[in-house]
Amino acid sequence: MTDNVTAPADLVASAKNANTGKEISLHQASSLIASGKAQQVLSAALTDIPAGNGHDGGILDNVAVPQFLGELWSGKTYVQRYAPLVNHATFTPGTSGVVYGWRFTDKLSVNDWSGFPNEVPTSDVGTELVTANPAKLAGGWVFDRDLADSGNAGFIEAALRQATNDYARKIDNKVIARISSESTAVTGVAPVTGVAKASVLMAKGILNLINDEASLTPDFAIVGQDLYEELLFSKKDQVLEYLSVSVGFDAANFAGFKVVPANTPSLNGSVIVGSREALTLFEYAGAPVRVEALDVARGGIEVGLYGKWAIIAAGKGLVKVTGA
After folding, report:
1. Residues 35 and 146 in one domain
2. DSSP bridge pairs for 295
3. How far is CA 149 from CA 156, 290, 298, 301, in A?
4. For residue 63, what are the domain limits?
5. In whole angstroms, what is the distance from residue 75 CA to residue 188 CA?
6. What is the number of alpha carbons within 13 Å of residue 297 lying toward its C-beta?
7. N or C: which end of the chain has fewer CB within 10 A?
8. Do 172 and 305 have their domain in common?
9. Which of 44, 67, 90 is the endpoint of a domain?
10. Distance CA 321, CA 211 (A)
11. Cα–Cα distance for residue pair 185/202, rounded to 1 Å
């Protein structure tokens, strides 16, 4: 075998010395392979063909389809905290929407009687009218019908779901604001060593309601943000034990008693204890009401959300307790 055999012509283009550009013999190529330098020589003349990353003008931009993920997670459906704590009623169709009721200002009472022939004790009664004018919440939009015709109606539903969430959140805020404004203030409650401050204030509020002449039933407590965290780190048995000893609130009572955190710093340092009957929230059935229509002239889909609400207060059954 001769040392100067020339490589076939179709391999010459890739069998050149990377430094001199001259053709190399088969023996020289074998020597390069043995020395481990073949990869450098044989790949020196190859063209790089990068795929790109799909958004930089590379090949993938032209030959591949992006993966569509649809709507990304934007938070769970809002669950109301405060509206479920009070009574609910619906507006009667065909009425003006103004709601009213009445309550006693003076109640009939009985007194000691010495018997015949003395006159039987008597008393007066008084009432007052309580009214509430409804307020409204609404929103309206016109969507390009191409969104629905092109198979993207899911976007419209997702957008309206956010508006419905906003309605629920705003009604919730109105309820807690009214709960707070209707509450009777009880201040200066002293702390108890070894007991969470929220438990002490809660016990005081419960006592205030059950000692009322109407013998109100406590149904819930709204705990200030700063106190709720401490309450979370308290064992349920310890909280129940303290309430049981201090106000006679046993496990059966506590089973239906709801404790929720406040959503506003204005209630920090305080606990509101309330009875469900203290407030009644009026709304449309299934609120908010959704209405749709076609905007034929402009090729749109009109959607509106409508809500009407009112709150009637009983004038009792809510106490806001603050520590010393």
Report:
1. no
2. 300
3. 12, 21, 15, 11
4. 1-67
5. 40
6. 0
7. N
8. yes
9. 67
10. 15
11. 13
Q: Which of 264, 255, 278 is nearest to 208 (CA)?
A: 278
Q: What is the number of residues in the chain?
A: 324
- For the chain, 324 residues long, give each residue's pLDDT as a single digit of tens: 555 555 455 444 445 555 555 666 666 666 666 665 555 555 557 888 888 887 777 888 888 887 777 778 777 789 999 999 999 999 987 787 788 888 888 999 999 999 999 999 999 999 999 999 999 999 999 999 998 888 877 899 999 999 999 999 999 999 999 999 999 999 988 888 888 898 889 988 988 888 887 778 899 999 999 999 888 877 655 665 666 655 566 555 566 789 999 999 999 999 999 999 999 999 998 899 999 999 999 999 999 999 999 999 998 999 999 988
Residue 302 covered by a domain: yes
pTM score over 0.85: no
- Give the whole-angstrom CA distance, residue 277 versus residue 314: 7
Secondary structure class of 12 (helix, strand, coil): helix
How far apart are the C-alpha atoms of 16 and 140, rounded to whole Å?
A: 74
- Look at the chain and report how many structural domains it folds into: 2
CA atoms of 54 and 230, how far apart (whole Å): 51
* Closest alpha carbon to 289 in 100, 137, 107, 72: 137
